[in-house]
Amino acid sequence: MAIKxxxxxxxGLVLTFISVTSAISGTATFYTVYVPSACYGYEDQGVMIxxxxxxxxxxGAACGRMYSVTCTGPTNQGVPQxxxxxxxxxxxxxxxxxxxxxxxxxxxxxxxxxxxNAGKINIDYNQV
Length: 128
Prior knowledge:
With about 130 residues, the chain is an alpha/beta fold. The chain has 3 helices and 6 strands; from the N terminus they run αββαβββαβ. It has a 6-stranded mixed beta barrel. The longest helix has 20 residues, at about 1-20. The radius of gyration is 17 Å and the shape is globular.
């Protein structure tokens, strides 16, 4: 009986870990003017930065959050295989025109994970 309870608890821990680390699917675009930002005004935060949609913004609570963003594929036929990898970015701004699961990356961050000629890509992201 004790072995069954132990196995059940271990399974619960594994499932909890998987659900916490699961990535969210969305899209990414890029922007090129980084200051002023809604979070830091004219204070430079580097170039591995992002603006997030209102759904992620949470009235500014998103400021300073770090997200790992991975390119998963194209959103159009323009660049059939745009992906290059994963990047970690810091939220510095709000993107009021973005869809709920869209992250607007700096041009440098976008270029690190995809061909900028794609313009918009499919991504998986999670907070780190």
